[in-house]
């Protein structure tokens, strides 16, 4: 076997020889923190999506652009549906991000938010 | 603890050494504190856990998420692959006599670094393809090219 191949194998072994030194209690704590932090950042992302869709819907109403079921693409590339219900606009992101709600003609949130 | 949290905890228990090894040695771990990186990877794994769905092997999925997270960390911190052997190298390869080769591998750009790394760790071409988002053919082609280049540099 060539020297190059031997050194490659040794390099590979040195990478694989690492062992996680955390105790079970420390690992449990790390997992709990990750779950908590993960949920917090998803929630924050959804709040941003609510803002985006609220303004998309209001802008469409203002421009009288909204037949029922009209498909829209937000500035961030999300596809969503906007429909008129009386004097209000119902919007829902079709990406499955959990954003849906109703805004009035001034763009104020009437109901909805995160599913 | 909810069912998905329990399943997640079990997955982390099974893959803890892999995650730790990546955080400790990816780009020789010189750019971050290993425990901080470990935590960042756990958060990313948890966020992707719901959509994982077992489409690829658990080990491959964990590897891919960890590599993506560590590369994001590198970009966020403005760190480039170290041009010189960073402090900490000795911890990875203490007493070994092959710093030149490790140095050459660490200096590879993405995705070549991850391809070579996963290759020497024993991953198949198909697994490396799933980790890097490349076809098996592309992995094979890149690997042959990079290994040829490394061998040439190493023998100089």
Head-to-tail CA distance between termini of chain B: 57 Å
The biggest beta sheet of chain B is recorded as:
none
Mean pLDDT of chain A: 65
Question: Topology as H/E string of chain A?
Answer: HHEEEEE
The tally of structural domains of chain B comes to 2
Shape of chain A: elongated
**Total tally of structural domains of chain A:** 1
Which characteristics define this entry?
heterodimer; A: about 120 residues; alpha+beta; five-stranded antiparallel beta sheet; about 45% helix; B: about 160 residues; mainly alpha; Rna Polymerase Sigma Factor, Chain: A; 2 domains; 8 helices
Please sum up the structure shown.
By secondary structure, chain A is α+β, with helices and mostly antiparallel strands. Helices cover about 45% and strands about 25% of the residues of chain A.
Give an overview of the whole structure.
- The complex is a heterodimer of chains A (115) and B (156).
- With 115 residues, chain A is of the alpha+beta class.
- Chain A contains two helices and five strands; from the N terminus they run ααβββββ.
- Chain A has helices at residues 3-16, 24-62, and strands at residues 70-73, 79-85, 88-93, 99-104, 109-114.
- Chain A has a five-stranded antiparallel β-sheet with strand order 1-2-3-4-5, covered by helices on one side.
- The model of chain A has no long low-confidence stretch (mean pLDDT 65).
- Chain B is an all-alpha fold.
- Chain B has two domains: 1-95, Rna Polymerase Sigma Factor, Chain: A (Orthogonal Bundle), CATH 1.10.1740; 108-156.
- Chain B has eight helices and no strands.
- The longest helix of chain B has 23 residues, at 3-25.
- The radius of gyration of chain B is 16 Å and the shape is globular.
- At the A-B interface, helix 1 and helix 2 of A face helix 1, helix 2, helix 5 and helix 8 of B.
């Amino acid at each position: 076997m060539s020297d190059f191949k031997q050194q490659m194998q040794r390099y590979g072994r040195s990478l694989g020889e690492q062992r996680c030194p955390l105790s079970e209690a420390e690992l449990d704590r790390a997992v709990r923190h990750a779950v908590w932090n993960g949920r917090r950042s998803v929630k924050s992302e959804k709040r941003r999506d609510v803002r985006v869709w609220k303004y998309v819907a209001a802008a469409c109403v203002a421009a009288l652009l909204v037949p029922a079921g009209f498909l829209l693409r937000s500035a961030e590339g999300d596809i969503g549906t906007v429909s008129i219900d009386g004097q209000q606009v119902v919007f829902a992101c079709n990406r499955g991000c959990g954003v849906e709600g109703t805004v009035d003609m001034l763009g104020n949130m009437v109901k909805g938010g995160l599913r | 603890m909810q069912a998905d949290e329990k399943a997640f905890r079990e997955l982390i228990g099974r893959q803890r050494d892999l995650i730790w090894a990546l955080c400790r040695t990816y780009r020789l771990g010189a750019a971050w504190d290993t425990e901080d990186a470990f935590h960042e990877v756990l958060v990313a794994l948890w966020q992707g856990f719901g959509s994982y769905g077992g489409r690829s092997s658990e080990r491959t999925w964990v590897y891919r998420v960890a590599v993506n997270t560590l590369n994001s960390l590198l970009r966020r911190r403005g760190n480039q692959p170290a041009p010189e052997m960073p402090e900490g190298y000795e911890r990875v390869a203490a007493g070994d006599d092959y710093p030149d080769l490790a140095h050459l591998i660490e200096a590879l750009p993405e995705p070549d670094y991850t391809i070579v790394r996963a290759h020497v760790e024993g991953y198949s071409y198909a697994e490396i393809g799933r980790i890097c988002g490349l076809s098996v053919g592309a992995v094979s082609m890149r690997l042959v090219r990079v290994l040829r280049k490394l061998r040439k540099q190493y023998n100089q």
